[in-house]
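[Discussion] Sanity-checking designs against the backbone

I'm trying to build intuition for which residues belong where. Below is a structure token string of 330 positions. I'd appreciate it if someone posts a full sequence so I can compare it with mine line by line.
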């Protein structure tokens, strides 16, 4: 097993490249050529899959891995497959002697950014491919982020939230670590829009989202599911008895007026459901949290409710108006 760093570039933005190649002559030649092409490159080299995984786990943050398909402990697409599973954000470029379209297709399906046939693997070609692969990957990541962000609040949108809920659901089921889903809806928000206008309503949505975000931990997730509805995923909840405290803190965070042109009061209602206590699937979890929200609305708004089996699902009619908190301007 060989593991060494060929050059530590001084610039902070040096591109960190990992060469996974068992042939010393090829690896050394490649390292030198890459460093000569760009002095801001820092090359690390390992000679087998296991060392690559160790380096990814404990070593520097690697930007691009250049992976040979014939390693002592992994043949064919096994090495890039395992590296991708081990480190999903890693940009991988494969150097292969097998230029068949089947291999190419398998690699692309795996999410490998690019591959170079050995016959074409000149330093210039490798260098260009690495640069392009990294740029392409960063563009993809940026597009993904934009697709998951709510333009108004800058928090996750429904699509991003569904991804977060799915992940939390998986962890809750697989590791038996409970998570909580809060469905939060602003009370009488239509009246705010009608009284002060849509743009002011937008400002309240934006500030309201920030108030909710201040009540949760870094590990938790908040986003706008649509309209005046926000979802919060409290991840890996080891102490369910903390939930009332968080919900009350959120309700309290709306007790101060929103300072937009004039001071405007708004309140929220919150429904909470626990995974796996209340639901087996992601859909059921969201549904139970929604039922609990409906209960909080029905009971007068400006309050929170934890799901329980006696609660009735919303029957399609809107909760009766006349809740405890009325819209007021102070
Ligand atoms: P409830 O207490 O029952 O929740 O009453 P509500 O008036 O808040 O009723 P509901 O939650 O159903 O209304 C949501 C309103 O949010 C309806 C829509 O006019 C408004 N809305 C939806 N999207 C936006 C938006 O992007 N900006 C603004 N300003 N208003 C929005
Ligand atoms: Mg509402």
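Best answer:
Here's mine. Compare freely.
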């Amino acid at each position: 097993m060989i593991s060494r760093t060929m050059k530590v570039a001084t610039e902070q933005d040096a591109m960190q490249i990992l060469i996974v190649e068992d042939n010393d002559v090829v690896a050394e030649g490649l390292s030198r050529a890459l460093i000569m092409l760009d002095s801001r490159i820092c090359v690390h080299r390992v000679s087998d899959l296991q060392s690559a995984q160790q380096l990814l786990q404990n070593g520097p943050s690697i930007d691009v891995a250049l992976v040979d398909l014939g390693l002592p402990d992994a043949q064919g697409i096994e090495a890039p497959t395992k590296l991708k599973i081990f480190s999903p954000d890693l940009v991988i470029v494969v150097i292969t002697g097998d230029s068949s379209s089947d291999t190419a297709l398998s690699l692309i399906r795996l999410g490998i950014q690019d591959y170079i046939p050995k016959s074409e693997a000149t330093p210039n070609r490798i260098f260009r491919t690495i640069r392009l692969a990294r740029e392409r990957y960063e563009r993809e990541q940026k597009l993904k982020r934009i697709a998951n962000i709510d333009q108004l609040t800058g928090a996750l949108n429904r699509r991003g939230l569904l991804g977060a809920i799915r992940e939390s659901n998986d962890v809750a089921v697989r590791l038996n670590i409970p998570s909580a889903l809060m469905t939060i809806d602003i009370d009488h928000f239509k009246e705010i829009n009608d009284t002060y206008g849509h743009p002011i309503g937008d400002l309240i949505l934006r500030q309201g989202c920030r108030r909710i975000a201040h009540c949760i931990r870094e590990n938790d997730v908040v986003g706008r599911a649509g309209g005046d509805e926000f979802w919060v995923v409290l991840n890996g909840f080891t102490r369910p008895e903390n939930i009332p405290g968080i919900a009350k803190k959120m309700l309290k965070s709306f007790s101060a007026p929103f300072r937009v042109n004039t001071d405007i009061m708004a309140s929220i209602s919150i429904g909470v459901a626990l995974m796996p206590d209340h639901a087996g699937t992601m859909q059921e979890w969201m549904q139970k949290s929604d039922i609990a929200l409906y209960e909080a609305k029905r009971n007068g708004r400006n309050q929170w409710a934890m799901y329980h089996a006696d609660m009735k699902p919303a029957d399609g009619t809107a909760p009766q108006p006349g809740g405890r908190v009325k819209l007021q301007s102070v």
